[in-house]
Amino acid sequence: MQKRTAHQIADVLIEALPYIQRFKGKTIVVKFGGNAMIDEELKHSFARDIVLMKLVGLNPIVVHGGGPQIGQFLEKLGKTSNFVDGMRITDSETMDVVEMVLGGLVNKEIVNLINLHGGKAVGLTGKDGNFIRAKKLCLTPREDLPGTLIDLGHVGEVSSIDPAVLDMLGDSDFIPVIAPIGVGEDGHSYNINADLVAGKIAEQLNAEKLILLTNIPGILDKQGVLLTGLSIKKTEELINDGTISGGMIPKTRCATDAIKGGVTSVHIIDGRVDHAVLLELFTDQGVGTLLLKG
Fold first, then answer.
1. Alpha carbon of 101 to those of 74, 83, 109: distances in Å?
2. How far apart are CA 167 and CA 7, in angstroms?
3. Do 194 and 63 meet the contact criterion of CB atoms below 8 Å apart?
4. Is pLDDT at 196 greater than 90 in this prediction?
5. Tens-digit pLDDT profile for residues 213-261
6. How distant, in Å, are the alpha carbons of 57, 67, 82 from that of 86?
């Protein structure tokens, strides 16, 4: 090994050390989605990141999405997907597909990848131990259709989280991998936005960090420059002046709600970058936007 290369590697390890010491024993909730779930190299990169986090003493919990995979499977069945405000209308037949794809195919693929790289992952849905209790999501009437309440079917929101199952796994060598499916008081299954599930779990467990993987660098200003170190107040200002817009608004609201709920910090990071999670956790510069309470 050349001397310069050796020094560069040593510098990386030394830079990571204080972060490893600071976060040892802390819970880190990671929402896995976007390109990182589709690109083969990125999937393996993510799995190695999670395994390394566990091995150095952190307590990672993975929550994953799977919208594109659900859409592809429905298309094979000849079933059209209809959306309202970005949410898939989910009848009983579609919900069966959602459970099969999220709780089966996608969840088990992530579990297998983590295990392949030396971890001990356990796949769960919110129905296991009834740990994600859900209620039907009711949309408020739309401006273009006043007085009309749109029924999204089996689309839900989190009503409560029972942390008992996650506490048990967190005290062991296992890494929970969670599909965002909850169960209602009526016994019906509900598909829930993965960002929201990750945020609520992070709140319930008083997590040190919530990390949301996206397909963009993070929160950008109007000139396209990455912003970081944002307070809740500053984030609200960016939403109000239109800097944060479109699909980034609900993701950012999820982040600020988690911080208000007791999560120490939230990271919105670029999941298209190899080892994005490790770079954000263990380097000074990071690869995304850091949000803090104040």
1. 10, 18, 10
2. 40
3. yes
4. yes
5. 999 899 999 999 999 999 999 999 999 999 998 888 989 999 999 999 9
6. 37, 11, 9
| Calpha distance 218→286 (Å, rounded) | 11
Closest CA to 46 of 33, 58, 59, 55: 33
Q: Is the pLDDT of residue 193 over 90?
A: yes
pTM: 0.93
Q: What is the pLDDT of residue 63?
A: 98
The whole-angstrom separation of Cα 155 and Cα 180 is: 11
With both helix axes pointing from N to C terminus, report the angle between 107-116 and 40-55 in degrees, rounded to the nearest 10: 60
254 membership: H or E segment, kind and range: helix 248-260
Burial 207-236 (b: 16+ CB within 10 A, else e): bbbbbbbbebbbbbeeeeeebbebebeebe
- pLDDT by residue (tens digit) across 91-141? 999 999 999 999 999 999 999 999 999 999 999 999 999 999 999 987 765
For residue 178, the one-letter residue type is I
Of 231, 225, 249, 247, which Cα lies nearest the Cα of 239? 249
Helix (H) or strand (E) holding 97: helix 92-100
